[in-house]
Design brief:
This protein has no helices and 13 strands. It has 145 residues and is mainly beta.
């Protein structure tokens, strides 16, 4: 069985009014998914080639980051989503923000900083039916306002 996986984080640049702050996002590391040993989970924290995505955040003035759960951008035709659950978790140590795995959108506040905040993003998809051979890709959208 061949299984190729990818994780992409979509970063949106949002300029807000000066009193609300200005935020820029860049994606130096898109991340990658790997299959769990039991074949029931694809994730960026699994053993092997999995890697979290990282996002660099620059904020002038206080900004709010909103992180959405992953969506599929590619799955093989044979894949059966069934009772899958798609979740995201992230940490941003410099801002003091973090989120445990969730299937919901969530937000953290990024203070006015002289240094960049690095947001580390992990995706996972759990499916009790497993995963068909093929290519899988997810996207997590992060917005700054």
């Amino acid at each position: 069985m061949q299984l190729r996986l990818g994780l992409a984080c979509a970063a949106l640049l949002v300029a807000t009014p000066a009193e609300a702050g200005l935020c820029t996002l860049s994606l130096p590391t898109p991340g990658g998914l790997a299959l769990s040993a039991d074949g029931l989970r694809l994730g960026s924290e699994e053993t092997g080639v999995a890697t979290p995505g990282t996002l660099t955040v620059l904020s002038v003035g206080s900004s709010t980051l909103t992180v959405d759960p992953p969506v599929w951008t590619q799955v093989p035709a044979e894949y059966q989503p069934g009772a899958e659950s798609r979740e995201v978790r992230y940490t941003a140590p410099l801002s003091g923000g973090s989120q445990a795995y969730t299937a919901m959108s969530s937000s953290i506040t990024v203070p006015n900083l002289l240094n960049a905040v690095i947001l580390t993003i992990n995706n996972r998809v759990t499916n009790p039916q497993g995963f068909a051979a093929g290519d899988y890709r997810t996207r997590t959208v992060v917005t700054c306002s």
